[in-house]
Amino acid sequence: MNPFTSIRAESVAALGEQRLLPEIKRWLGKTSPAAPFGMGDDCAVVRASGKAMLITTDPVIYGQHFDETLSPRAVGAKLLKRNLSDIAAMGGRPLAAVVSLALDANTRIAWLRDFYRGLAAAAHRFNVKIVGGDITQGPVGFFGAFLTLHGEAAGNRIITRGGAMPGDRIFVTGTLGGSLLGRHHNFVPRLAEGVWLARRRDICAMMDVSDGLAKDLHSLTPAGLAPALCATSIPISAAARKCAAVTKQTPLFHALGDGEDYELLIVVCYRADLRKFERAWKRRFPRLRLSLIGTFAQKDRLPEGAVQLSNFSGYEHLRDA
Amino acid sequence: MNPFTSIRAESVAALGEQRLLPEIKRWLGKTSPAAPFGMGDDCAVVRASGKAMLITTDPVIYGQHFDETLSPRAVGAKLLKRNLSDIAAMGGRPLAAVVSLALDANTRIAWLRDFYRGLAAAAHRFNVKIVGGDITQGPVGFFGAFLTLHGEAAGNRIITRGGAMPGDRIFVTGTLGGSLLGRHHNFVPRLAEGVWLARRRDICAMMDVSDGLAKDLHSLTPAGLAPALCATSIPISAAARKCAAVTKQTPLFHALGDGEDYELLIVVCYRADLRKFERAWKRRFPRLRLSLIGTFAQKDRLPEGAVQLSNFSGYEHLRDA
C-alpha cells in the first residue's frame, strides 16, 4: 500500500495531531502503558533496575528501508526488530521504546494504523512497551519513523564488540545474503540466542550483521589483527544464490555484502572447548544453524587462501545522490 | 548557511559513512565517551542508578524547526535544548542522548560539523553525554536530527502533568509569545528551576510550554475542571508585542498561541502559602520572572472575565500540505 493519499479525508491531516494521538494509543493497545509510564507527559518514566541500561536507535525511512510493496504492518515490525537485533547483539533484554515520526500530512490514516499495529504486535511478542514519542510534519512524500530502544543486561554482563584476541574463533548464526528477497523484514531478532551466549564465559565479543559480514567484521577486529575466513565455511543463503543468478555476481559476493542479515557474529575465546560449545548450542537451539567461519590472525600472518575481504564491500550508508 | 551543497567535495557523500563517523566523534569532543559507553557498539551503555529513568524524544527538521537563516550551531543547540526542556518539566536531571540523523547525501560537511559543535557545546553546558546514534541517507533536500534524551529524577520525586485540583494556582516562568523573533532557538531550558520546584511539596503538576499556553494548558487540566486565566496577569513578551504590530493580532493572541516558549507552567497546591512560595522563588531565581496567571475552577463555575481559551489556539503539528 502506498503510504500517501491525495484524498484529504483519508489523510492524517484530517485528524490533526490532537485526534491522532489517542488513535495511536488505541492502535498500540496493551503495549502502550498509561502516562507517565507511557505517552502523554513531558517524558516517559521507565523503572530502572540499577543494572546498566542499553540504548540503541535505528529508523525506517520510506524509499530507504521500505517501499509500497511492503505491508505497513511489516514496516512497523521491522522498525522494532532492527533495534531488537542490536540489543540481542549485546546479550540484553529489551524493555521500552520511544518512536519519533516525521511524516507528510498526506500520510494515509489506514496505512499509519497498520504500521502501529505491526509495531504493537512485534512489541507484544518481544515484551517491549512503547512509552512515548513525537510526531512532526515532514516534507511531501516523506515518512520516517525513528525508534530508540532501551534494554538492560539479561545476566551479569553484556558483550561488546571489543575483546577479540589472536586465535579466537569466529562464528555466525543462520545463513547470509539475499535479504532483499524477504529477510530484510521477516527476520527474527536473535534475542534468546544473545542472552544464552552472554551467559557463557567463552564468548568474548559479539555484534549483529546488519551492513554485511565483509563490512561488519571490521568492527570486531582489533588493531594489528585480521579475520581469516574460510570461503567454503560461510553459510550462504538460498536467497543469496537466487540473487547471484540474476546479478551474475557470485553467491559469496551476496553473502558477504548484502547486509540486513540480522544474524549474530560471535567471537569465541581461543581457549574454549569448541566441540562442547557447538554441542551446547545444538541442544539449546537445534533449529538454528551455527557456523565456524574463521579465526582472528595477526595481520601479517594471514593464512594463505583466506577470503580477501577487501574484494567485498558491505552496505555503505551515504552514497551520491 | 544552506545545509546542502552541489559541490561533491564539500558534501558528506565525499566522506562516506565510514570516514564521517570518526569526524563526528571529533566534533563532539569530550561529550562523546568511548564505546561501549558511547558511539561504536551495537548499543550504548548508560549506568543506571536504580532511580526511575526519564525518556523524551524531539527532532529538528529542516523547513520545520529551522531554515538557512539559523546557524548550524544554533540548530544543534536547539535540538538538545528542546529535549532538555522536557526533562526540566518533570524536575529531572539529564544524563545521556542518542541522535539519529536522516540526511541528503549532499549535506555540507562544514554545516554538519558546526551542527555537531553546537550540539556538543550545549551538551557540555548541561552535562549531557552523546552516547550513540545512527546516520541514514534521506531524500534530496532533507535534514532531520532525531534526539532521544535520558535523565533521572534529581530528588525523590518527579512532577507529572496530572494532579491539579480545584483552587490550585497556575504559575508560569518568564514571558510568552513571539518566539519566531529568536526565542525559538536562543532559550535556556529551565533545568535548575525544575529541580528546585520538584523538591517543593506544594508543587502538584508541571509541564513546559512548547505549543503555546492555550493548547498546552489542556494537558494540565483534569476532567471536570477548567483553567481560569486572568488576561492582565499573563506575562506578554516584548517579542509578542512586536509580532502583534506586524500581524495586527493582539499581543495576547501571540502570547497564548505562538509556542516554542520553553517556559515552565507550574501548578501550586491550593493549600500552599503563596507569598512564601513567591518569596522563596525570588531569593533563588531573582532574575527570572514568575507570574501567577490563574487558577483551576470547576468547569461550570468559571469566574466571569476569565480568558476564553477556545478563542486562542496553539501550534498544530499536522496541517494540510
Work out the radius of gyration of chain A. 21 Å
CATH class of the largest domain in chain A: Alpha Beta
Main structural class of chain A: alpha+beta
Q: Which residue ranges of chain A are poorly predicted, with pLDDT under 50 across at least 5 consecutive positions?
A: none
Q: Which percent range fits the helix content of chain A?
A: 25-40%
How are helices and strands ordered from N to C of chain A?
A: HEEHEHEEEHHEHEHHEHE
CATH architecture of the largest domain in chain A: 2-Layer Sandwich
Strand numbers in spatial order across the main sheet of chain A: 7-9-6-10-8
Q: CATH superfamily of the largest domain in chain A, called what?
A: PurM-like, N-terminal domain
Q: Largest interface, with Cβ-Cβ < 8 Å?
A: A-B, 78 and 78 residues
N- to C-terminal distance of chain A: 26 Å
Write up this protein:
Two copies of one chain form a homodimer. Chain A has nine helices and ten strands. In chain A, the strands form two sheets. Chain A has a five-stranded antiparallel β-sheet with strand order 7-9-6-10-8, with helices on both faces. Chain A has helices at residues 12-28, 72-88, 109-125, 183-186, 191-198, 213-220, 238-247, 251-257, 274-284; strands spanning 44-46, 53-61, 92-103, 129-137, 143-153, 169-173, 203-209, 225-229, 263-268, 290-298. The first copy, chain A, is globular and about 65 Å long. The model of chain A has no long low-confidence stretch (mean pLDDT 94). The first copy, chain A, folds into two domains: 8-153, 60s Ribosomal Protein L30, Chain: A (2-Layer Sandwich); 169-311, Alpha-Beta Complex (Phosphoribosyl-aminoimidazole Synthetase, Chain A, domain 2), CATH 3.90.650.10. Strand 2 of chain A pairs antiparallel with strand 1 (44-46) of chain B, so a sheet runs across the interface.
